[in-house]
Amino acid sequence: MNFHTRKWVKPEDLNPNGTLFGGSLLKWIDEEAAIYAIIQLGSQRVVTKLISEINFVSSARQGDIIELGITATEFGRTSITLRCEVRNKITRKSILTIDRMVFVNLGEDGQPAPHGKTEITYIKDQFKD
């Protein structure tokens, strides 16, 4: 799993306990996962269908730098399934894991549409002549 996205935990991201608010983290994850799905499927009409159990295994505090790792685990006819892990950039300690996030490709009519993808592609391979 590649960890490309990094976030700096700032005061506005904290809960009353002084740790990273789970809602802020889930917003970041959903946005990054959607971007990943859009790039993999080559379509901007991608929506979140399902997020499985979310396992918070530790917390982050103000000033921590966290990184998000996302990878595709399965390609369906109209969907893509992703796995996500968030960890502390410095200590590498896991903060959260999500085993399944499903995104669905939509057609012009707003209904699920085949995307034609079957495996992970990388940016360097997507723009070859």
Mean pLDDT: 93
CATH topology: Thiol Ester Dehydrase, Chain A
Instruction: Summarize the helix and strand pattern as letters.
Output: EHEEEEEH
Could you say what the CATH architecture is? Roll
CATH superfamily: Hotdog Thioesterase
Overall morphology: elongated
Can you walk through the features of this model?
The chain contains 2 helices and 6 strands; from the N terminus they run βαβββββα. The protein is an alpha+beta fold. The chain has a single domain, classed as Hotdog Thioesterase (Thiol Ester Dehydrase, Chain A, Roll). Strands 1, 2, 3, 4, 5 and 6 form a 6-stranded antiparallel β-sheet that branches. A hairpin with a 3-residue loop joins strand 4 and strand 5. It starts with a strand and ends with a helix. The model has no long low-confidence stretch (mean pLDDT 93).
What is the element layout, followed by pairings?
Elements: E1 3-8, H1 22-41, E2 46-51, E3 54-56, E4 65-75, E5 79-88, E6 94-105, H2 123-126
Antiparallel strand pairs: 1-4, 2-6, 3-6, 4-5, 5-6
Keywords: Hydrolase
Protein name: Thioesterase superfamily protein
InterPro entries: Cytosol_ACT (IPR040170), HOTDOG_ACOT (IPR033120), HotDog_dom_sf (IPR029069), Thioestr_dom (IPR006683)
Summarize the structure.
The protein is α+β, with helices and mostly antiparallel strands and about 130 residues long. The chain contains two helices and six strands, in the order βαβββββα.
